[in-house]
Each structure stands twice: as C-alpha cells, then as structure tokens.
Amino acid sequence: MSWYDREYKYSFIQKFALNVLKQGVLPKHVAFIMDGNRRFAANRGLLKSEGHRYGFSKLTETITWCHDLGITEVSVYAFSIENFKRPESEVNFLMNLAAEKFQEFIDKNDELTERGVCVRVIGNLSLLPPVVRRLAAQVMLLTRHNTKATLNILLAYATRDELTHAAESIRLGVQEGVLLESPWIS
C-alpha cells in the first residue's frame, strides 16, 4: 500500500460527504497527528504493531480524501522525540515501518512525479536509524522538483527541539556574519 490509494472506492455516504465538503471553502494545508493506534489495537485485542499498520492504512485513506478535495499540502506528525521512550521493540517496529514506507515511495516515484508530490521529512533526523535517514533523504531528493502537492512527514520532532535548533542556527548565523544582529536587542 502506498501513501496515496488511486484505487480507493468511496461508499455512497463518502461520495455524498465529499460533495458537501466541496461546496464550501477548503484549506490548502491540513495536519494530522498520528495518535491512538495502540489504544485502537488494545480495544480490539490486536498487537500494537497491527494497530500501527491499521493507522497507516487510515492515513492513506485520509491523504486520498485530501487529494480528491484539492488540499495541496498535508503534514503528518508521525513520530515525536518522546516516542523514543517507548519499548525498544515498538520503536524498532515503527522505524522498520518507516523504512518500508520510504522504500515504497522510492519504488513508486513515477506516481509521485505524475501527481507532482514533493515529500519533505522534518525533524531531528540525526536521531533516526541510518537506514531510515538514507531512505528519507532519497525520497526527498527524488521528489524535490515536484510542485503540485506537498507531503510533510514529521519524524523525531518536538516543538522545544525545533525551537532550540532554530535559535542555535540564528546564533551561528550572527556569529559567522551571515545574519546581522538586531539593533533592538542588546
């Protein structure tokens, strides 16, 4: 299964809902937080890994809906830095799932190019396993010139971490003379 399901068949009620939504003003960018997969699995007596796979399939449906509604940018908060505190087996499964899905992107690059989808992976990528970093970089390079739609995948992210890195980048920019220090700050 890829990130976009071109064979997805809408039910009657879903077609109706899509048509109703299309009558109003729709955003160009939406964001989703991948949350609740473990609860979903526990409530149904499934393994956590099955919950994560099911969550990914629902994400695929959601991205398909967004595409069909003309929403051109989707951000997916997939794995926060806090998630590294989970049991090692679960983190390993999620990293392997990420690697598997990035490989699918690479294998289906023609579809991404045809649809004009640029994939960006955002977060503290140095925290990810080397294979995931390599595959993510490859996907970003393959899709960097696509301009019709953007899929932002946030991995190893945290707001505090992003702000810390941004402040450090600014500090280094001022130190190296690339940025000028503001006259209003003393």
Task: Provide the fold topology.
Elements: H1 12-22, E1 29-33, H2 37-43, H3 48-69, E2 73-80, H4 88-107, H5 109-115, E3 117-122, H6 130-143, E4 149-157, H7 159-175
Parallel strand pairs: 1-2, 2-4, 3-4
Distinctive features:
4 strands; UPP_synth-like; EC 2.5.1.-; Undecaprenyl pyrophosphate synthetase; UPP_synth-like_sf; ditrans,polycis-polyprenyl diphosphate synthase [(2E,6E)-farnesyl diphosphate specific] activity; 186 residues
Could you characterize what this model shows?
It is a single chain. Helices cover 53% and strands 15% of the residues. It is α/β, with parallel strands linked by helices. It has one domain (26-175): Undecaprenyl pyrophosphate synthetase (3-Layer(aba) Sandwich), CATH 3.40.1180.10. Strands 1-2-4-3 form a 4-stranded parallel beta sheet. Helix 2 crosses helix 3, helix 3 (48-69) packs parallel to helix 4 (88-107) and helix 4 runs parallel beside helix 6. It is globular. This is Alkyl transferase. Belongs to the UPP synthase family. InterPro entries: UPP_synth-like, UPP_synth-like_sf. GO terms for molecular function: ditrans,polycis-polyprenyl diphosphate synthase [(2E,6E)-farnesyl diphosphate specific] activity.
